[in-house]
Structure to design on (311 residues):
């Protein structure tokens, strides 16, 4: 099939393409690991220092969510996006693709080693009281010193506007406290969840609903830091660990009922010019995924009790 013929493909043909699984595995399961997404690290940085879990603690606390989303999303994809003509790729084709790529270069080996080192540093850092930022900085210095990252690349490839944005975001807790927004929320939100009678399930559902509603007017890059910074201060008053509030916000931010809501979804869709899947095909999956996320939060309650995250 020529690329130019993609616009003539009917809905059934697009529906049979299995590449939607890549979007689920890459974009939607990133919340269950600390290093899975930039927004995870932003939310983690907005937590009080004493309430910041390590890589393993985050992974254990997110394991029930991972299990629910993996089984649920995979089941939906197999039922609704199963290829109509499923043929295994020939071994000769795979070998030819590998030959076309060629062996790894020195720069690629160095970049891969730096990535592994950063991941190990994030995992082991809390046990040695080493901040993840220091690990990342050391990796960047090593790549620069070895010539993998040149001075020009350092200037042009680093997303400096994002770094400035992060600087503003990380100052949000102080600004919110200075504006007494946290005090107002501490008096306003508890009555909202009082009817739950201290039930973690209802409290999580309400916070998840607040996040979902906010995502219709805020992008995930605004909603996650804003809601995390404003809701974390009220966590003790509703019997939740601050990390749970951040995790609920992160889980509720994965929404693309309307295409503009989720940048990762738009990236996957636009990269194929709409050939892999259409908006109408995955809108229902977005609603199902939200329900799966809420189920994952509720299923996590016993594990969070064991970890001391619920009072």
């Amino acid at each position: 099939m020529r690329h130019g013929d993609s616009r003539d493909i009917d809905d059934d043909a697009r529906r049979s393409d299995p590449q939607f699984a890549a979007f689920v595995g890459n974009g939607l399961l990133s919340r269950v690991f600390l290093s899975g997404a930039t927004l995870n690290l932003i939310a983690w940085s907005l937590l009080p220092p004493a309430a910041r879990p390590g890589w393993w603690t985050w992974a254990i606390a997110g394991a029930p969510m991972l299990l629910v989303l993996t089984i649920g999303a995979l089941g939906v994809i197999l039922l609704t996006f199963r290829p109509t003509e499923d043929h295994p790729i020939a071994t000769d084709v795979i070998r030819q693709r590998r030959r076309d790529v060629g062996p790894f270069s020195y720069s690629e080996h160095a970049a891969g080693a730096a990535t592994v080192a950063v991941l190990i540093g994030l995992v082991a850092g809390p046990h040695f009281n080493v901040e993840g930022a220091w690990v990342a900085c050391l990796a960047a210095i090593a790549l620069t010193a070895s010539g993998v990252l040149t001075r020009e690349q350092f200037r042009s490839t680093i997303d400096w506007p994002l770094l400035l944005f992060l600087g503003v975001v990380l100052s949000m807790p102080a600004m919110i406290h200075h504006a007494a927004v946290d005090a107002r929320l501490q008096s306003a939100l508890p009555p909202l969840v009082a009817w739950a009678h201290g039930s973690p399930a209802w409290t999580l559902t309400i916070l998840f609903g607040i996040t979902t509603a906010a995502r219709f007017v805020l992008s995930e890059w605004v909603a996650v830091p804003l809601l995390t910074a404003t809701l974390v201060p009220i966590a003790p008053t509703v019997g939740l660990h601050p990390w749970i509030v951040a995790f609920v916000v992160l889980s509720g931010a994965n929404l693309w009922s309307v295409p503009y809501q989720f940048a990762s979804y738009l990236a996957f869709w636009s990269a194929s010019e709409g050939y892999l899947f259409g908006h109408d095909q995955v809108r229902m999956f977005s609603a199902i995924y939200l329900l799966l996320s809420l189920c994952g939060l509720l299923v996590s309650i016993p594990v969070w009790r064991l970890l001391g995250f619920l009072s």
Notes: The radius of gyration is 22 Å. Residues 184 and 242 are 18 Å apart (CA to CA). DSSP finds 17 helices and no strands in the chain. Confidence is low (pLDDT under 50) at residues 1-17.
